[in-house]
Design goal:
The protein is mainly alpha-helical. Helices cover about 50% and strands about 5% of the residues. Helix 3 crosses helix 7 and helix 4 packs antiparallel against helix 7. The protein starts with 10 loop residues before the first helix and ends in a 6-residue tail after the last helix.
């Protein structure tokens, strides 16, 4: 995702990401507008939230939740974060350790190292949880 590995997502990184998802007709103006929405340099966490808002046809919260449930045969509602990290870094579109860590910073992780995937599914589809 961050092709030049500078820790930030730029216009070319956005183009490459859209292309990898099969959307190649993204206009430069749309990408420029997306970058301008960020309050500063666009890091991976900000990118996840913004990209989710812009990509039509993205998976629903239920779809993401069901994917996590496949990894939780006992139905505990949580999955070990190290297990998820290994999977994300070794399967399909492999993520870097930094990308996984950035995503997991929004997950609720208990003392035993298990993450609440229902909460993470919500954040992935709706953005950061709002504090009340």
């Amino acid at each position: 995702m961050d092709q030049n590995r500078d820790g930030f997502i730029d216009k070319e990184d956005l183009k490459d990401t859209y292309a990898s998802l099969g959307k190649i007709s993204v206009k430069d103006e749309e990408l420029d507008a997306m970058l301008k929405e960020a309050s500063g340099p666009l890091n991976f966490t900000m990118f996840l939230n913004m990209f989710g808002e812009k990509l039509t046809g993205t998976d629903t919260e239920e779809t993401i939740l069901n994917a996590f449930k496949m990894l939780d045969p006992e139905g505990k509602g949580s999955i070990n974060k190290d297990y998820i990290k290994r999977l994300l870094m070794s399967q399909a579109d492999k993520m870097t350790a930094e990308e996984v860590d950035q995503m997991l910073q929004f997950a609720t992780i208990d003392a035993a190292g298990n993450l609440d995937y229902k909460g993470l599914s919500y954040v992935l589809t709706h953005g950061e949880e709002k504090e009340e």
